[in-house]
Specification:
This is FAD/NAD(P)-binding domain-containing protein. It holds the Pfam family Pyr_redox_2. Belongs to the class-II pyridine nucleotide-disulfide oxidoreductase family. Strand 4 and strand 5 form a beta hairpin. The protein is 31% helix and 24% strand. Helix 1 packs parallel to helix 2 and helix 1 packs parallel to helix 8. It contains eight helices and 17 strands. It folds into two domains: 207 residues, FAD/NAD(P)-binding domain (3-Layer(bba) Sandwich), CATH 3.50.50.60; 121 residues, FAD/NAD(P)-binding domain (3-Layer(bba) Sandwich).
């Protein structure tokens, strides 16, 4: 069977080529759905050398994972194409026939070079990005080798090393201390970088942390030194007063925002409350459909729990949802044409009598 030609109008446009976008692409490939995947080459896990909790790919380089996934799709299947581009604009509009009123409803996106692409459905697999604090010197230089936001993702390799918890502004940090106990640390210290909140939720979490063996250090931090490129080299914390401390790593969860918030705004997609993460709101969880018909979302941009394996599953759901919607619309068109032909056939038969 000859390969499918690259179309002018794709069935599905997939923005993002991380785990969610790649799995959405693979799902399209398996059903011979014409899809175009946009890869901006900007990833949340830039600088991370190993990903975890992915069966068969545990402690695997994420860039190599992406290379293999794309290679398998491109070498085995013929209905998915990849485009290196950063999408800057997205809009719902009539596509085909010059984009005028005679076309059909779909989407047009534009990249940073001014190139336009059209598709019947749109999947946002654009991910999220961490907003690193700028008030602590050396934070960025230690991220992500020596500062971890998820102990389940990165704690195992540093087991047996002193652990520091940076900041303590919510109950979640009590959970971090609880998780840290599994890694046999010789010490667990909360570096709050100033006075800790006296609010009941924080104090309750702090009480739990102390019960688990953690100590509290409220000194103001002036600088973080990177002790080496390896994730086992650790870092040194300097304070306004007193001696510095060398640790295996710090645990801290910076704020996270949608990487493609501009596209979310342009498309008018609903999002959840900022306190719940601000990610895209899903109105049909089975198929990851958003508040705008024809737009689906996958991965970190639509879930609170941001993990590779979860993103992959959400990519499959989004592609399946877009595929089902396409099939339903095609079925409606086929039935309408069939009924028109039958009506014409009946008219001709009536005339012949």
């Amino acid at each position: 069977m000859p390969p499918l030609p690259r179309p002018q109008i794709f069935d599905i446009l997939i923005i993002g080529a991380g785990p969610a976008g790649l799995n959405a692409a693979l799902t399209c490939a398996r059903t011979r759905t014409a899809a175009l995947v946009f890869d901006s080459l900007a990833y949340r896990n830039e600088g991370v050398s190993h990903m975890h909790t992915v069966a068969s790919r545990d402690h695997f380089n994420p860039r190599e994972f992406g290379r293999i996934a794309r290679s398998q799709i491109e070498s085995r299947y013929d209905s998915v194409w990849f485009q290196q581009a950063t999408i800057t604009h997205a809009a719902k509009k009539n596509i085909g026939l010059g984009g005028g009123g005679g076309g059909s409803e779909g989407f047009e996106v534009e990249d940073s070079e001014g190139n336009a692409y059209q598709g019947k459905k749109l999947i946002l697999a654009t991910g999220s990005k961490d907003v690193l604090p700028e008030d602590i010197e050396g934070y960025k230089e230690n991220w992500p080798q020596h500062i971890y936001q998820c102990l389940a993702c990165d704690g195992y390799e540093q087991r047996g090393m002193p652990i520091g918890i940076l900041g303590f502004d919510g109950p979640m940090y009590g959970h971090m201390v609880q998780m840290a106990t599994a890694f046999d640390p010789p010490s667990m210290t909360i570096y709050s970088n100033g006075a800790i909140s006296t609010g009941e939720p924080v104090q309750k979490a702090l009480k739990l942390a102390k019960a688990l063996g953690a100590t509290l250090d409220e000194r103001k931090i002036t600088k973080l030194d990177n002790n080496g490129p390896s994730d086992t080299d650790g870092l040194t914390v300097h304070f306004e007063a007193g001696e510095p401390v060398t640790l295996g790593f710090l645990v801290h969860k910076p704020d996270t925002v949608n990487r493609a918030q501009h596209l979310i705004d342009q498309l008018g997609l609903e999002t959840v409350d900022a306190a719940m993460g601000g990610h895209i709101k899903i109105v049909n969880p089975m198929f990851n459909e958003t508040s705008v018909r024809g737009v689906f979302a996958a991965g970190d941009t639509m879930v609170m729990m941001k993990q590779v394996a979860i993103a992959m599953g959400e990519g499959l759901k989004a592609a399946a949802g877009a595929g089902v919607q396409l099939a339903q619309e095609r079925a409606e068109g086929v039935l309408e044409e069939y009924e028109l032909r039958e009506q014409e056939k009946e008219k001709l038969e009536a005339v012949s009598y």
